[in-house]
Amino acid sequence: MRRFLIVSHGELAGGIRSALELITGVTAGVAILQAYVDENKSVEEEIAGLLGGACDEEEWVVFTDLLGGSITNQVLRVAAELGVMGSVHVVAGINLPLVIEVVMADSSTPVREVLNDAIGMARDQLVYVNELINNNG
Q1: What's 62's DSSP letter?
Q2: Which residues, in sequence order, are bridge partners of residue 69?
Q3: 41, 53, 63, 72: most buried by Cβ count inside 10 Å?
Q4: Is the Cβ–Cβ distance between 65 and 7 less than 8 Å?
Q5: Which tens digits make up the pLDDT trace of 14-63?
Q6: Across the chain, which distance is largest between two alpha carbons, in Å?
Q7: In the predicted model, what is the mean pLDDT of residues 128-132?
Q8: CA-CA distance, 111 to 99, in Å (whole number)?
Q9: 92 DSSP β-pair partners
Q10: CATH architecture for residues 2-136
């Protein structure tokens, strides 16, 4: 079973999940963690609570907002401490096309293949549209 976690500084994760639901109608199996919104919650404890069930039968794709950011580092640290790095796949620097592509992918396709294809497609979505228009006009 493939599950998804969107983790961000602030409320970005909620916005991405909201857009995902609006565009695809899918939110089943998609959890979010909006870090540093509620100062009373431990981000690491929340991550551990979600990823604690990761095992050979349940793989997680974790989307984080910034490569090298505190959120990504905490996800990696918790997954390593729980011994679930083999079942947790972390993708940093997310955008909406990436999340849609991965969540909508056939679950029988190996996760590495899904992620590599989706990351390539997501990179192609980053376009300076003014230049695109000017070069094609």
Answers
A1: E
A2: none
A3: 63
A4: yes
A5: 999 999 999 999 989 999 999 999 877 789 999 999 888 777 678 999 99
A6: 54
A7: 92
A8: 13
A9: 64
A10: 3-Layer(aba) Sandwich (3.40)
